[in-house]
């Protein structure tokens, strides 16, 4: 069936009337090419259908939560069984303890777990825990890193006071000297250091964490008593079956988890070592839905799948096939592309494309051929991305490169992206 967006346009117009801006937050398509649909009707495995019934091989995976495939049966069954017993009750189910035991058993630095709903809950709890533990104010965050949408960390400034982030200080990711300088400039006052497992910022090539940087972060925290916090919300369980920095031999004091550990059910977590247990006992953090049992049952099954199946090897295998296929196609069509980050969390940017118009043009051509990609944000594979999905994807991307070549001279920059970049 030919790609169409008639219903998408109608929904956009209705949404404009009753939802500010028609949509908000990270799933808003305001920074996507104009053709991208805002509303979806269903998902299964690695596939997604929009409101016009266009079918896509989805490389956003709900922006992370889809790890094992949409509607993955074993997780759905565990969630449904718990839902039938009770979800949001007057107190948590005992499975909260099972989940904390399972999670801390998998993440080497963790002695305890606290559960919440979104990644921002977990990162904000980590910040408060670090301040409670040290009695200090300064929180060090890598410049440009995203840790959520609370006043202390949101990237946009509307409605935010300078005071809200007065003690949030930036350093440069992967730069041990810049981190040491930040410690020196705030000597005696650093409560915690945030680091993501690798550098995964929008509109910029991704970079692995340098060992020297991770070791320096650990050493500076040890010397000063500050807490090292690894924010696993985006990358957790897509690099490793436990702590992402275990491969570097660096153990954080706290780690924050969200998105994918219940395969799409709403739950996030703060994990910590015994060093931070007393502080974690003192802080007051809660929410009406934080103790609901259904997402916990989904999480227990998802963690079991992570421990006992080859999901990670399949993610990596699919990501590698995708990357290698694209690299060959781009070269044969005469485009320079930079594919950075782990193959299972790819970001694809074009050479000689300062305002991103080539990349935007290419993902638009892919969309109309049934492949949903992002032109500016890292993407995610799931273990449901099969060889057939990747083969179908590569057939579409090849045609998209061909179509792009023909349109190359008439591509335009994206207005909202240009405005955002001018404001940076
Ligand atoms: N930390 C990181 C590294 C993230 O990528 C995100 C979300 N993209 C968050 C925190 C915030 O998570 P949430 O949107 O679930 O609040």
Task: Give the helix/strand class.
Answer: alpha/beta
Low-confidence parts:
none
Q: What's the overall geometry? A: globular
Strand content: 5-15%
Descriptive overview:
With 424 residues, the chain is α/β, with parallel strands linked by helices. It has two domains: 6-70 and 311-423, Aspartate Aminotransferase, domain 1, CATH 3.90.1150; 88-291, 3-Layer(aba) Sandwich (Aspartate Aminotransferase, domain 2), CATH 3.40.640. It is built from twelve helices and 15 strands. It has helices spanning 6-18, 73-85, 95-106, 119-134, 176-185, 211-224, 277-282, 293-308, 311-333, 357-367, 387-407, 415-423; strands spanning 40-44, 47-50, 55-58, 112-116, 138-142, 168-171, 190-195, 198-199, 207-208, 227-231, 254-257, 268-272, 337-340, 347-350, 371-372. The strands form four sheets. It has a seven-stranded mixed beta sheet with strand order 4-12-11-10-7-5-6, sandwiched between helices. A four-stranded mixed beta sheet has the order 1-2-3-15. A two-stranded antiparallel ribbon has the order 8-9. The two termini are 41 Å apart. Bound molecules: 4'-deoxy-4'-aminopyridoxal-5'-phosphate (PMP).
């Amino acid at each position: 069936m030919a790609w169409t967006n008639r219903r998408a346009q109608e929904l956009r117009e209705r949404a404009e009337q009753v939802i500010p801006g028609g949509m908000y937050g990270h799933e808003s398509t305001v920074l996507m090419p104009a053709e991208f649909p805002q509303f979806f009707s269903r998902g299964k495995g690695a596939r997604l259908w929009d409101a016009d019934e266009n079918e896509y091989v989805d490389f956003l995976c709900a922006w992370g939560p889809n790890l094992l495939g949409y509607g993955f049966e074993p997780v759905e069954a565990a969630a449904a069984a718990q839902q039938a017993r009770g979800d949001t009750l007057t107190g948590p189910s005992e499975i909260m303890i099972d989940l904390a035991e399972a999670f801390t058993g998998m993440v080497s630095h963790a002695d305890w777990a606290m559960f919440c709903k979104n990644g921002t809950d977990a990162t904000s709890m980590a910040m408060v825990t670090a301040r409670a533990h040290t009695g200090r104010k300064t929180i060090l965050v890598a410049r440009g890193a995203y840790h959520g949408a609370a006043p202390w960390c949101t990237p946009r400034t509307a409605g935010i006071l300078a005071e809200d982030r007065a003690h949030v200080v930036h350093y440069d990711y992967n730069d041990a000297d810049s981190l040491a300088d930040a410690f020196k400039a705030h000597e005696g006052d650093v409560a915690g250091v945030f680091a993501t497992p690798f550098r995964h910022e929008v509109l910029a090539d991704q970079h692995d964490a340098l060992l020297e940087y991770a070791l320096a972060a650990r050493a500076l925290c040890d010397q000063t008593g500050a807490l090292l916090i690894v924010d696993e919300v985006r990358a957790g369980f897509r690099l490793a079956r436990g702590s992402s920095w275990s491969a570097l031999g660096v153990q954080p004091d706290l780690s924050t988890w969200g998105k994918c550990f219940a395969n799409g059910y709403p739950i996030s977590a703060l994990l910590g070592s015994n060093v931070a247990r007393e502080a974690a006992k003192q802080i007051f953090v809660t929410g009406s839905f934080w103790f609901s049992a259904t997402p916990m049952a989904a999480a227990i099954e998802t963690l079991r799948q992570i421990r006992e199946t080859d999901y990670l090897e399949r993610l990596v295998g699919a990501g590698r096939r995708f990357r290698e296929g694209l690299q060959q196609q781009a070269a044969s069509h005469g485009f320079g592309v930079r594919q950075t980050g782990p193959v299972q969390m790819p970001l694809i940017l074009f050479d000689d494309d300062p305002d991103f118009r080539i990349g935007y043009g290419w993902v638009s051509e892919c969309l109309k051929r049934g492949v949903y990609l992002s032109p500016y944000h890292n993407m995610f594979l799931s273990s449901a991305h099969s060889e057939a999905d990747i083969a179908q994807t590569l057939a579409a991307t090849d045609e998209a490169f061909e179509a792009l070549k023909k349109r190359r001279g008439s591509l335009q920059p994206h207005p909202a992206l240009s405005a955002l970049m001018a404001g940076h």
